[in-house]
Structure formats: C-alpha cells, structure tokens
Design a protein that fits this description.
single chain; alpha/beta; N-utilizing Substance Protein B Homolog, Chain A; Alpha-Beta Plaits; nine-stranded mixed beta sheet; four-stranded antiparallel beta sheet; globular
C-alpha cells in the first residue's frame, strides 16, 4: 500500500480516466491500494466524480484564466487545474484548494508548480458568483450544466425544454447507493439491522420498497453484506425493471445483454431451484462479470453465455417464459452515475445503437413462448432508442401486445413507460412490456 494523499489519488485517477479508464472500476481499486482514512477516500471519490461530471464548466473557468487552450496542456497539468477549479467551485478555501493541488501536481510535473499555482489563484478571484453564461442557447446551457451541445439539443428535442433542463441538472447530482437484498440469504429488515449496526444510514426505496438506500458505508464493494452475497448494489430503476419482468419460481428466463449482471442475478433470485436464467452477453470479459456476481450470490440456476443476441445459440424450437432485452444504449439516463460517459458518447452512436436495439429485440421476440412476456429496457431517454423502437416492434411483431405500463413516477411513453432521474432520484430508464399472443411453432 502507498501513503499518497487523497488529491494524489484523485489526480492519478483523472489522468487515467481521460486516457480511457472507467471511474467506477478504476477508483475503488486505487483506493484499496492506499492507507487513506474513510473520510479521505470519500473526498477523493467526490473530487474525481465531481471533476469529471463538470469538465466543460470547469474548462470554461480555466479558459478565462489561461492564455492557451486547456487541451494543449500536458495531461497531469490539465487534470490538476480541473481538480483545483472543482474544489474552488465547491467552496473549498482557496489557500487549501490551491496549495494542496499544486503539491499533488508537482509530484507528477514539478516544473509546472508555478504555472498551476498562478492559474488557480486567478480562477479563485472569479467567484463566487462564478461567471457562467446566462443565455438560454444550447451552448450556454451546455456550459452551465456541463454537457456537450449535442446532448442538450437532443434532450430538448426529445423531452421538451423543461424536462430536459431538469434532467441535465439531475445529471450533476451525487447518486444514492442502493442495495438489493438477496432473498436467498436475507430479508430487507435483517439487512437493514446489519447495516445500521455498522453505522450506516438506511432508508427504504421510494420506487422499489425492498430496496435499501444507504449512506455512510464507504466502498460498497468492501461491505460484508456485498462480499458475502447478502446484497447487491443496484439502482432502484434497474431493480424495478427486473421486477417488471415478473419472473417466478420454476420459470425459464432469457436475458439478452446481461452484463454486468444486476438484472440477471435479480431474476435468478426469483426463479428458485427449478427455474433457469440464461444470461447472454456478446463480450466475454463482461460475461465473466455475470459469472462472478452469480457465484457471489450463490445462485445455481443462472447460466452465463457468451453469444451475440442477433445469432441466438439455441435450438430452433427453444422458447422462454420471459425474455428481457437489456439492450446496449447511449446511456443518457445514467450520466450522473457514469461521469465520463457524457464526454465519450457521440451523436452518431444513438442511431447506430437504435439499429442494434431493433435487431436484438426482433430476434429475442422469436424466443418468447405463446403467452410469455418480452420486456425491452434501456437506460436512456432518447426517442430513437425508446418510442421509435416501440413503433418498430408494433409494425414488425404484431403477435406481441402491450401490457399495462407501470404507474407514477413512471411516465407513459409510447406503449411503455419512461422514468426520468428528476422524478424519482434514480437512474433514467425506459421499459416496454409485451405479451406474446401468437400460437408458436
């Protein structure tokens, strides 16, 4: 283990995230390799996620203080300036934010000490109040909410201005940690008592009653209840989709796009020893995540399979009671939880993913038994990936009829329902539930 400071760890993480790493995978592993106290780990986590979420807004401030473009700076210097600006915006006293950030940067780029010090001291004089652009145009909104222009424009077009602005603001909130109790090993009440005895603050979910919203526990991956299989970190929106599949004991369920395994294992907890969940994903590394989660939870009837959902590896007559298509998507409903995603997804990705989604759900629809259920779900809110996929299914799968969508806080959306982050404090999600009324073959 190393004796680096919280800002040292945060700076290294920011450099690696800009180079392609994922914050949710990288940072917990880095923190476990330190001697940082729980408070410092929490500070490093807040600093990394807050900086990555607000890159565009921070670069706006730095652009006022710099005489050159932020993009032209060396990566450690750029990360240090953004990290320092984030602390200033968060109200950390300038003397602490600047000096400690300069020290962290100097350990990686010693010759930049004076430069970083000067720029951050200039930024400190800019606010509060900070000089955010006040216009209602796409660029001004994009800077204030720290999103690319195209995401702002797309959400306004697809959701309407008020809902889009509320969603953009919600993207910068810190998401709650939510646990799903494993009914094989515990109950919500027993898990609540266990967490309270460890000093956590626990409340029941507003969307999913058995979900536990937890604060004050640090790294959830190190929590005994998670390590030993009594609980799984999973947002309430995702838990709600798994519940809407309606799987019961003895049923055979197929999930297409199952990694990293949250919904697959939730389904596995419901089908008992006589049921079966086939969890299919095209990426072998991600398939391994499902297997790891399945072993941790002690679920014997979940089978993880590496295969493309457009070429399902089953005998022609194989059918399932329930099929969930948890399709790859643009992820615009989970930007608060995946901070780097807003800077990586591109406009063309939405239409390409919508094409893939139609192909996946079209193939999956052929595997639903007569009377069985098909559920299509994506953690995004674009029209192309939600309503338009629903319309395609309406035209191309007439043997599927919609069931009643969930009620509030879900909103009617096509034949399905849309959950916006600002409505329930959850991830954004679309879900469509259809029942097969064909005769089968």
């Amino acid at each position: 283990m190393t004796s680096r400071s919280a800002r040292d760890v945060a700076l290294d993480a920011l450099v690696r995230i800009e180079d392609g790493a994922y914050a949710n995978l990288l940072l917990p592993a880095m923190l476990r390799d330190t001697r940082l106290a729980a408070r410092d780990r929490a500070f490093a986590t807040s600093l990394v996620y807050g900086t990555v979420r607000r890159l565009r807004a921070l670069d706006h401030l730095l652009g006022i203080a710099l005489t050159r473009a932020v993009e032209t700076l060396d990566a450690p210097v750029r990360a240090a300036l953004r990290m320092g600006a984030a602390q200033l915006v968060d109200g950390v006293p300038a003397h602490a934010a600047v000096s400690a950030t300069v020290d962290a940067c100097a350990r990686r780029a010693p010759r930049a000490r004076g430069f970083v010090n000067g720029v951050l001291r200039t930024v400190a004089t800019l606010g509060p109040p900070w000089p955010w652009p006040e216009g209602d145009d796409v660029t001004s909104v994009g800077i204030r909410t720290s999103h690319p222009d195209w995401i702002v424009a797309r959400l306004v077009d697809d959701l309407g201005r008020d809902d889009a602005l509320a969603l953009l603001a919600a993207d910068n909130d810190v998401p709650a940690l939510t646990l799903r109790p494993n009914p094989v090993w515990t109950t919500p009440d027993a898990l609540t008592r266990e967490l309270l005895s460890a000093g956590a603050d626990v409340s029941r979910g507003a969307l999913v009653h058995d979900a536990l919203v937890v604060r004050g526990i640090g790294d959830p991956g190190a929590l005994p209840a998670v390590v030993e299989g009594r609980a799984t970190p999973q947002d309430q929106a995702s838990q709600a989709v798994a519940a809407l599949v309606g799987a019961g004991p003895g049923e055979h369920v197929l999930e297409v796009g199952s990694a990293p395994g949250g919904k697959a294992t939730a389904l596995g907890e419901r089908i008992g020893d006589d049921g079966l969940v086939v969890a299919l994903d095209a990426n072998p590394r991600r398939t391994q995540l499902v297997r790891t989660a399945t072993r941790r939870l002690g679920l014997r009837r979940v089978r993880s399979v590496t295969a493309d959902g457009r070429a399902l590896p089953f005998a022609p007559r194989t059918r399932f009671d329930r099929v969930l298509v948890d399709a790859p998507c643009s992820g615009l409903g989970v930007l608060r939880r995946r901070p780097e995603a807003r800077w990586r997804v591109r406009p063309a990705d939405v239409d390409a993913l919508a094409t893939l989604q139609r192909e996946l759900v079209g193939h999956a629809a052929t595997r639903v038994r007569p009377g069985g259920v098909l559920v299509y779900s994506v953690c995004t809110v674009t029209r192309a990936e939600t309503v338009d996929v629903d319309e395609w299914l309406r035209r191309n799968a007439p043997g599927l009829e919609p069931t009643a969508p969930p009620g509030g806080p879900w909103r009617p959306c096509g034949r399905g329902a849309l959950l916006l982050p600002q409505d329930a404090g959850t991830d954004g999600m679309f879900v469509l539930t259809l029942r097969s009324v064909g005769s089968g073959s």
